[in-house]
Amino acid sequence: MAPESDGKLEHISKRIGSSAHMITTARVPADKPIRIAFSLNDTPDDTPPDNAFPLAFPDLEQQLQPLPPCHDSKESMQVFKQHCQIAEEYYEVKKEIALLEERKKELISRLDQAEKESMDAARLTKEYADLTEENRTLKLAQTQCVEQLEKLRIQYQKRQGSS
Questions:
Q1: The overall pTM is greater than 0.85
Q2: How many CB atoms lie within 10 A of CB 71?
């Protein structure tokens, strides 16, 4: 045990393994208050290397990747978290844009098909009108030919009867 000096608690911190600490203390009188506070992340050895934050967004361009934070700075950690959120939102927006572009291509294709069908329908409608008109004209010509033929028969019969 460590000796007591000036009524203050002396402590010795020894590193065991990668993150465990062993703390030894001296005896303190019962009437003295004791406060012990420590963090496992307050030593430089506990900070992960720069590559401890792999590219969390592999589809994101390199210059848009969140930079690893400085673990000693709450502000840096906060900025890193915000950057990750923004990167996630950016990734989601890019995904949505890609889906919308795909949908746009599909709709354009369907519109082209509908326009083609519409043009086909217009062409068929015109062709039907043309054929209907031709049919009417041919029926009229047929009627005229039938009438002419009938007149010629009557004339022929008159000639046969008079001779």
A1: no
A2: 16
